[in-house]
Write a structure and sequence with these properties.
Shape: rod-shaped
Function: A possible function for this protein is to guide the assembly of the membrane sector of the ATPase enzyme complex.
Protein name: ATP synthase protein I
Organism: Chelativorans petroleitrophicus
Keywords: Hydrogen ion transport, Ion transport, Membrane, Transmembrane, Transmembrane helix, Transport
Family: Belongs to the bacterial AtpI family.
Amino acid sequence: MADGDEPGDLDGRRRELEAVLAARRQKEAERSGGAKTGGTGSFADALRLSSEFIAGVVVGAALGWFVDEMAGTTPWGLIVFLLLGFGAGILNVLRSAGLVAEFGSKAPKKGEDDQGRE
C-alpha cells in the first residue's frame, strides 16, 4: 500500500476533499454573483419579479382610467399612465434584482465592500 492509502489516513483524505469542495463552492458562488440557484428559490424570485412588473402596469392603468373619468380625456390618460406604469414596472424589477441602485442611495457595487474596495 502507498502512504496515502492506509485506512487510518481516511480522515485526512476526507478533510482534504472537504477543503477542495468548499473552495470550489466559494468560487462558484463568487462567479455566479451570489445568486440563488435551485428550484424553489428561483421560482419564488420569478414570481416576485413578475408581480412587481404587473403591479406597476396595473397601477398605471388604474390611475390613467381614473384621470380619464375625472377629466374626460378618454383614452389619453389611460395611454399615458399605462406607459408610465410599464416604465415603473421595469424599474421595480431592475431594483428588486439588484441591477439598479435605489434613488439617492450610495450602495456599493457588486463585489465591493462598504469602503468601495474589491
